[in-house]
Amino acid sequence: MPRSLPDTVLIEWPQSLSQPAPDTERALDRAADLLRHGGLVAIPTETVYGLAADALNATAIEKIFRAKQRPATNPLIVHVVDVGMAQSLAAEWPAAAAAITAELWPGPVTVVVPRGTSVPDTVTAGGATVALRCPQHRLTRRLIEKLGRPLAAPSANRSEAVSPTTAHHVLESLGNRIDLILNGGSCDCGIESTVVDCTQVPARILRPGPISRQILEEVLGRGMVMECDRLSRRVGLQAARAPGQHARHYAPQTPLELSPCAADRVACLLRSGKRIGWLTTQTNSANARLLAQSRELVIVPMPEEPVLFARQLYATLHAIDQRGLDAIVVDAVPDTEAWQAVRDRLLRAATPAPAIATGES
Hints:
Blueprint lengths: L6 E4 L11 H15 L4 E3 L6 E5 L3 H11 L8 E3 L3 H6 L6 H10 L4 E6 L6 H4 L4 E5 L4 H10 L3 E2 L14 H8 L5 E4 L10 E4 L5 E5 L5 H8 L4 E2 L29 E4 L2 H10 L4 E5 L5 H6 L5 E5 L4 H15 L6 E5 L8 H10 L12
Parallel strand pairs: 1-8, 2-8, 4-6, 5-9, 10-11, 12-15, 13-14, 13-15
Antiparallel strand pairs: 2-3, 3-7, 4-7, 5-6, 9-10
Helix pairs in contact: 1-6
């Protein structure tokens, strides 16, 4: 018998209340019980929705990889309730990790530290380090408190696809592969956390995110943070040190491309008979107004401010991907620190899927 779709349960905790409502507490108790018994629960965070399992239960972790069809070489981020829980999962606690977590937790930054013996191999892809984060979303922290154990929680979507920022996105992507969805509303940041390797000096950003290098240097000191490498081209055969390192990631089903001359590229594609979605900050330009007359073009206005662009990006890609278009064109964003996280996501989304071998010569 096929499994039924998971329940989607609304959870709320207004800032004006010191405690969640009884219905929310019951939903969190239900989620904790499922997790305690090896289940999979989609949870809201301030970044994106995560697919959570007990991080110390190797069998439950394997379910995450199967549900997402995720390569075993791609490690998971472990979510904790506080620094004490994080330290219990680490073999060492480097000075950079101590400083970052003291100043920026709870929040959208992940520290990579030497792995403790209690962390299963499946969580770290067999590596010697573990990625740890304390989410800002207080209902998710309350869930971890109720469980009394850390949660491994990659994004709650199929591997390489656009990350979910609403409960509906989770249901569309994973359907009956999971046991429960906790609906905490739309995610505030809209993109994944910054990941910082704290095992080296200076610390290195492995994945850009909401916490910028400038903020990290304010915490660690000038010159104590290295930029992340340019877009890596991992082939998936070697274990990554942190998630989000594979060349193709965050990608809609509709082919996506970045263009420094997007209006010209859109015009060219329209002339060839293609149906196009165009994400642009230049909706008031003469070219955009002219192209907007085409019935084969969907123009989506995007914010000119990088934080707002990031918050809107995944939800926009989810929506435009439902239109049955031939291609999505996105204005090339500036190659500056403020836009680094958005640019990283778009470059990976624009990376073509590898060709499938047919066995023919």
